[in-house]
Every structure is written in structure tokens, then in C-alpha cells.
Amino acid sequence: MADEAPFQILHNEVIQYIYTSAENGETENGRNITKLENMGFRVGQGLIERLTKDTARFKDELDIMKFICKDFWTCVFKKQIDNLRTNHQGIYVLQDNKFRLLGQLSAGKQYLDQAPKYLAFTCGLVRGALSNLGVKSIVTAEVSIMPACKPLVIHRQVTY
Amino acid sequence: MADEAPFQILHNEVIQYIYTSAENGETENGRNITKLENMGFRVGQGLIERLTKDTARFKDELDIMKFICKDFWTCVFKKQIDNLRTNHQGIYVLQDNKFRLLGQLSAGKQYLDQAPKYLAFTCGLVRGALSNLGVKSIVTAEVSIMPACKPLVIHRQVTY
């Protein structure tokens, strides 16, 4: 339980910090999500570099996505992605049924509008990791019923 | 190795973020250390609450400090404090010979002036944890030869 706690609590504090500075008029409110996403991006880049230091070269994109779902997700969230689906044309859907960074929010629809700020960092995290593996992507997330987060990874390769 | 990586990298990004915002003129530079310390304080509060949820009541201050050195430090840094000394009058010195958050900085005196910003968060972390256990304290850190950080916990109880 406590293993992922330092990361989780620090993540919450970062959100708090960025939103509080915005309220003080120091930054624009609309840029908060972008800031969180950017921070996630850089953490994802650094993390994937360490994780893939000694791994074999990846066969293809699907191989990369599997690595994200297993090793990468386990390193950050201490569990694997529960479900990976793909249309084999560049779109991947990763589903985490018990997403840790939303665990503190109450289940139910009441706080659903608060969810985006708890997902932005993770979207950036995945995008940064993929980016360092040479896969340009657009990463979005959605959450239907609260604790079951469904990070939806829409991925479009830009350069061939 | 990779277990503490997400926390470590996020910690570095937070420092980066706070210092970059300051450079853009959004905040005063002198307040950065305080901001990091405050963030650490709140993370320490949250963390100690989770860690002590099921522990027995602490006998005395020394008992609390031992908990910080073992369980608390292990949770955050995946290793224990190497050396705890005290004068039994409220001053405790915790020494970590391989402090993880400084591991990325090169050994040697060249970057010694960069150390404070990598220590501020941890000082707050310890102060927050102690504060939630009812121990008011002043926490400072020093680092002599680079990778051997010596978080110096000067603790003065204010209320009796």
C-alpha cells in the first residue's frame, strides 16, 4: 500500500500547487492542465530512459505498448494495465480498472468534473515515454465511473 | 533501482518547474526554497498519516525519530538512515550516506552550491512528518562531500 504513496501524495501536492498559484493570479488558469501535462511528459521521458536501459530492442509498436502496459505502469502505479485493445491502425486503448491517482476521489458522479486535473499528468507521462521510444502520439484520458479510470490512448503516428 | 525512480524524477521536475517559473518573473526567486520546503511539509504530513495508521503509540521522542529513520525513510527513499545521533536534549542528527535525491548530481565540490534546492523538499518532508506526530521542530540539512548527504535535524520542542 505505502509503496506508491510518496509519488501519489507528491503528485497531489503538485496539482494543488499549480492550481493555487493560478488562483493567486500568478498564472492563467487555463494553462494549468497544460503545465501538468508537460511535467508528466518530462517525467515520462526520464523514466522510460531508465527502464529501457537494459531491455532488448522493441519489435514493433505493439511491443512498445505492451511494455508501457506492463513494466512502465508497474513502475509508476505498482500494478499493470488491466486491458489493452487496438485497432492495429495506430489506436490503442489502455484500461486501468483501479487507477491509483484517482483512488482518493470519492466514487460517484459528484466529482467527475474534477477528474481532468488528476489525469493530465498521466497523459503526459505516457506521451513522454512513447516520444522517447520514437512514437509520436496524442494521449487523452477519460473516466466514466470514478475509480475505474480508462486512460484512452489515441495514437497517431505523424512521421513515417 | 527503478522503484524510487518515479518519485525521484517527479521531485526533480518540481524543482525545475518552480525555478523556471521564477525565472519567468512569475514569482520571486528567494521564495523558491520556501515553496519547496512547504510542499515537502504537506507531503510529509500526508505520508506519516498513512504510515502510522496501524502502528502502536510511540513511547517517546526517540521512538518517533527511530520510526522516521527506518519506516519513513524506507518508504520514501528505499533505504534506512545510516546513522542517528542525539544529545538527548532535543537535537537529533540523521545521516544518510547515499542520499537518493542527490545521486544525480556529480560528486565533488563544483556543484555544492546547487545542493540546497535539492534538500529543501526533504527538510520539509521530515518537519511535516514530525509535526503530525506532535513534535514541533526546525529541520536543516547540510551536505559536505556530495553524495553523502547529512540531513541535520535540529529539533527544538516549542510547547511542553
Shape of chain A: globular
In what range is the share of β-strand residues of chain A?
5-15%
Order of helices and strands of chain A: HHHEEHEE
DSSP strand tally of chain A: 4
Please give the radius of gyration of chain A in angstroms. Answer: 16 Å
End-to-end Cα distance of chain A: 43 Å
Largest interface: A-B, 27 and 27 residues
> Reading side by side through the largest sheet of chain A, how are the strands ordered?
1-2
Oligomer: homodimer
Structural class of chain A: mainly alpha
Keywords (chains A, B): Endoplasmic reticulum, Golgi apparatus, Neurogenesis
Subcellular location (chains A, B): Endoplasmic reticulum; Golgi apparatus, cis-Golgi network
Main location (chains A, B): endoplasmic reticulum
Protein name (chains A, B): Trafficking protein particle complex subunit 6B
Structure description:
The structure is a homodimer of 160-residue chains. Chain A contains four helices and four strands, in the order αααββαββ. Chain A is mostly helical and 160 residues long. Helix content of chain A is 46%, strand content 8%. The mean pLDDT of chain A is 83. At the A-B interface, helix 1 and helix 2 of A face helix 1 and helix 2 of B. Chains A, B: This is Trafficking protein particle complex subunit 6B. Chains A, B: Belongs to the TRAPP small subunits family. BET3 subfamily.
